Amino acid sequence: MIDLLVPKEMLSTQRLSLLKAWRSMSDLEAELFPVGMSLLGRQIVWELVRAHWQDERLSVKSLTLAVGGSENGTRRHLQRLEQAGLLLIRKGRRDRRSLELSPSPRLLEAIDRLLDALESAIQGSKYRQEFSRS
Q: Checking DSSP bridges between strand 99-103 and strand 87-91, what pairing results, if any?
């Protein structure tokens, strides 16, 4: 998969430009989502958004299975996201014992901001400018 993103004929300056764009996205992601450097936390955020965009209902159990973490670790990250106002937790529609998870409007706005910044970083990167010339 890396070969698809970074062609072998890419120049060092192009690679550096792409790396800078990725770093700026990583910094923005850390600013927007209170999960620290945790890969599990990031996977939870992306799975919440994916399920929302695909109009799927998500429970703690299905989220835990999707991200491959422990239920306790998942619940800890969900608690942080809820405290930050990025997660909505409701009782299940079918089974009141289960919880239904969905991203808050604030999380969706943060995702839009991140995607806009990513598009801008790619369009403004020397990688895109230099590689499109070759």
A: antiparallel
